[in-house]
């Protein structure tokens, strides 16, 4: 319905009342805090929309041009016309780009109930004006100062008349008309031009320094002549002893009407940095995805028998993080990322024991059984939604305490939104194109300028740091390859796959070289920023994750069931190994190097480790012969036989500890060895030595001396040292910290709008006067006696009329309702409740009063 059909709204509540359901739904979707809880009527909705917390949250989500539009309205007259606003944004000379983008920015402010009124009377919500208007404590981003009226509010009438006269205006009888005349002079471009034409050159230089802000300056008690010239004519006005300010109207004249030095109606384009073949990008990302899986498995294998201890304040110690980084052969920040990723995916947690330690969860064993692509998609989905921020590890919190990996204080509620937005920007580039990171950061700062400025974590705003971490973490995880978004990365976002189209072109059949300074790639500019896609629901994300796994699966290498044994006591695994082979090889040999192929080295200690785990020499020979594509080298066979021959020749048990051996000459050799002094051995019998240390220490000491002892039980049997997989009790993955109330779904929106409309009907329905009583104030419940209430109800049942009632429920909450009574009996009234849009039964004793609705 056109605006001409309705009178101009006198309040935000009236403006909201004139909206249709689609417009109200858009408001509640963009500002979900307004329906938590659901307002009783539109007046309450308008009140809530004007609260400081809600307005600030809405301002934080504006893009730069919409925020600049709001800032311009904050320094414009209240109310302001659209033409006035356009002049402040585009200047006297006009700007076609600004003029084209302004309706969309104003529409955004109207949709979010930050601006109301028609184009002739635009009003910024009072709280937003207070937040954005310039003041000495909170300078405006526009760089403008107070208006003439505000700056002269405490000035003596005589001084005001002196300024008016010096400016060439006739004196007036009162200060109000004098200030009005001075304001009109400063707003008149021609008259101001003539006034400034007579200004001394130093005075013009002073104005030039103040014109774009800050508008305040210092003067001495005896100012120079050029400053006196400005002060006499009101071009500078005193605000405090020794402080002067450039009035807003003067600054706007010098700026040629512009409120901002550089309006930014268009979002900065995400510039390409390099272009690669989409197939190369996908292959590179898949390779990194495989490395990510191997790294997480290695981390959990390292913690399989119980990981590092939990600090008293929570988290990993710096020493444990360093040890983990060495074990994974990565830097400490990267190690923190893998630890936090496993934690976010629910694969590790604290065990909750008295000496609390980190360990794998039961979910880790389930995760290991999944196909590789599904294991990766679980990690990627957890990373995308996590509010844990590994990049903060090693920094300091507000209390100057070090932030530890897995510790408290690492949640940042903006992290999921920034990750999603960065990847979405990458998805907007042609397939295989890597972005320039600085252009990505510039785009994010344009989209949320106020939010970034208010959330600083160090020298750079938090959103920019989150974006940098997103780009590096996405590469580590294999979502991107060579900086470009992969096909499975697009699928994870639910974005359409453009790689098929790109790969069909001749230019993308092979890898492309990085773009040089003189090279150009197509960049698309828009008059208004494309709307960011809404986050996927849980069901939609599950579908997207499954699609990403399907795209990645063919790109991952197939696990192998063989290795290549070499004569230098090494084995080469030319690719990933199947799990039974990999597990036994990890026991039998030590990993020497990783990469495209993994090199294992056999040593006496590693072979003894396999024998301690219960494997016989014959088992090891058969295992190697079965899984090697090359014959078992003779040196390796000799090594296994030699260690097996010595293994268990010495037996260590618990006395405190003892050593027994059938060869008394060997025991004599041990006793004579100076390295055995720390074990404090003494002979009990020709074949038995006793030690004053525990069996584990004795075992390690003898092994360090070059022997191969075996532990034995109280019955004299050899103990098999099998690794004990330590698991935590069942644990759920950490819940992300929400960034405010979640966006409402369609069902909640429809129910909320219906309830608000019905409550507004009850609150605003016209009523007949009740006797000689004074009219009720808005929101006040009707009051009638019990007998009068019953009689009015019974009459309404006969006539079918609707009534307005006040009702107090069992919790003591009062509300107004419009009902159509159907039946009155037994102290209850059954009626169709227009407010709830259903038939309900109400106890009569809870109805405060009743009034008939007016006929119109």
UniProtKB/TrEMBL annotation:
A matching Pfam family: WYL
Domain WYL residues, every copy: 788-850
Annotated Helicase XPB/Ssl2 N-terminal domain residues: 563-685
Biased composition (Low complexity): 495-513
GO molecular function: DNA binding
InterPro entries (alphabetical): WYL_dom, XPB/Ssl2_N
PROSITE patterns registered for this protein in UniProt: WYL
Segments for region (Disordered): 133-155, 495-537
Keywords attached to this entry: DNA-binding
Name the UniProt record assigns to this protein: DNA-binding protein
Species this protein is from: Streptomyces incarnatus
Source organism phylogeny: Bacteria, Bacillati, Actinomycetota, Actinomycetes, Kitasatosporales
């Amino acid at each position: 319905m056109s605006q001409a059909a309705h009178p101009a709204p006198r309040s935000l509540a009236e403006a909201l009342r004139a909206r249709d359901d689609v417009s109200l739904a858009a408001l509640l979707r963009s500002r979900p805090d307004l329906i938590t809880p659901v307002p009783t009527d539109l007046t309450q909705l308008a009140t809530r929309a004007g609260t400081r917390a809600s307005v600030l949250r809405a301002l934080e989500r504006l893009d730069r041009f919409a925020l600049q539009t709001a800032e311009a309205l904050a320094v414009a007259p209240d109310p302001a016309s659209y033409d006035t606003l356009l002049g402040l944004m585009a200047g006297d000379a006009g700007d076609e780009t600004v003029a084209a983008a302004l309706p969309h920015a104003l529409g955004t402010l109207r949709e979010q109930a930050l601006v109301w009124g028609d184009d002739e009377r635009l009003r910024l919500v009072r709280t937003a004006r207070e937040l954005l208007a310039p003041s000495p404590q909170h300078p405006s981003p526009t760089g403008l100062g107070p208006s003439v009226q505000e700056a002269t509010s405490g000035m003596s009438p005589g001084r005001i008349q002196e300024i008016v006269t010096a400016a060439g205006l006739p004196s007036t009888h009162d200060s109000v008309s004098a200030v009005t005349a001075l304001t009109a002079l400063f707003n008149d471009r021609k008259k101001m031009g003539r006034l400034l034409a007579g200004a001394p050159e130093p005075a013009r230089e002073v104005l030039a320094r103040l014109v774009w802000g800050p508008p305040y300056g210092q003067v001495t008690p005896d100012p120079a002549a050029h400053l006196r010239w400005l002060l006499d004519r009101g071009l500078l006005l005193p605000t405090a002893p020794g402080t002067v300010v450039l009035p807003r109207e003067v600054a706007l004249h010098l700026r040629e009407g512009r409120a901002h030095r550089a309006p930014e109606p268009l979002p900065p384009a995400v510039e390409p940095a390099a272009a690669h073949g989409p197939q190369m990008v996908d292959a590179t990302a898949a390779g990194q995805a495989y490395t990510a899986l191997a790294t997480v498995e290695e981390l959990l294998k390292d913690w399989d028998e119980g990981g590092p201890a939990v600090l008293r304040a929570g988290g990993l110690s710096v020493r444990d993080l360093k040890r983990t980084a060495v074990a994974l052969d990565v830097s400490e920040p990267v190690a923190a990322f893998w630890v936090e990723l496993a934690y976010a995916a629910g694969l590790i947690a604290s065990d909750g024991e008295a000496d609390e330690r980190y360990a794998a969860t039961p979910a880790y064993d389930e995760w290991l059984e999944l196909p590789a692509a599904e294991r990766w998609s679980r990690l990627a989905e957890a990373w995308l939604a996590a509010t844990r921020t590994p990049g903060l590890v090693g920094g300091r919190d507000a209390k100057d305490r070090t932030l530890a990996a897995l510790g408290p204080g690492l949640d940042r509620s903006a992290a999921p939104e920034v990750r999603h937005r960065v990847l979405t920007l990458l998805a907007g580039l042609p397939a295989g194109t890597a972005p320039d990171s600085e252009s990505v950061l510039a785009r994010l700062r344009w989209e949320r300028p106020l939010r970034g400025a208010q959330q600083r974590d160090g020298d750079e705003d938090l959103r920019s740091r989150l974006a940098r971490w997103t780009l590096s973490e996405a590469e580590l995880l294999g979502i991107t390859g060579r900086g470009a978004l992969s096909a499975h990365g697009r699928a994870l976002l639910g974005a359409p796959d453009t790689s098929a189209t790109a790969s069909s072109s001749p230019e993308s059949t092979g890898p492309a070289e990085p773009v040089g300074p003189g090279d150009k790639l197509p960049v698309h500019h828009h008059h208004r920023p494309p709307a960011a896609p809404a986050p996927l629901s849980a069901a939609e994300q599950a579908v997207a994750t499954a699609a990403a796994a399907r795209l990645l699966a063919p790109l991952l290498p197939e696990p192998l069931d063989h290795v290549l044994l070499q004569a230098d006591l090494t084995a080469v695994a030319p690719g990933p190994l199947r799990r039974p082979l990999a597990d036994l090889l990890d026991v039998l040999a030590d990993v020497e190097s990783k990469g495209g192929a993994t090199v294992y080295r056999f040593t006496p200690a590693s072979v003894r480790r396999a024998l301690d785990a219960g494997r016989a020499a014959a088992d090891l020979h058969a295992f190697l012969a079965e899984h090697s594509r090359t014959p078992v080298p003779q040196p390796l066979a000799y090594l296994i036989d030699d260690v097996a021959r010595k293994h268990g020749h010495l037996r260590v048990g618990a006395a405190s500890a003892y050593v027994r051996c059938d060869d008394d000459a060997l025991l004599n050799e041990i006793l004579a060895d100076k390295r055995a002094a720390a074990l404090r051995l003494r002979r009990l019998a020709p074949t038995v030595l006793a030690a004053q240390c525990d069996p584990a220490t004795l075992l390690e000491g003898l092994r360090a001396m070059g022997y191969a002892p075996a532990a034995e039980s109280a019955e004299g049997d050899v103990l098999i040292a099998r690794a004990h997989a330590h698991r935590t009790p069942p644990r759920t993955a950490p819940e992300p910290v929400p960034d405010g109330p979640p966006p409402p779904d369609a069902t909640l929106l429809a129910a909320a709008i219906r309830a608000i409309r019905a409550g507004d009907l009850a609150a605003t329905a016209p009523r007949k006067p009740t006797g000689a009583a004074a009219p009720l104030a808005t929101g006040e419940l009707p009051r009638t006696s019990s007998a009068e209430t019953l009689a009015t109800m019974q009459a309404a049942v006969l006539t079918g009329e609707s009534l307005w009632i006040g009702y107090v429920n069992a919790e003591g909450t009062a509300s107004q309702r419009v009902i159509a009574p159907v039946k009155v009996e037994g102290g209850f009234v059954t009626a169709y409740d227009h407010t709830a849009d259903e038939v309900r039964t109400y106890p009569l004793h809870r109805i405060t009063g009743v009034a008939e609705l007016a006929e119109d």
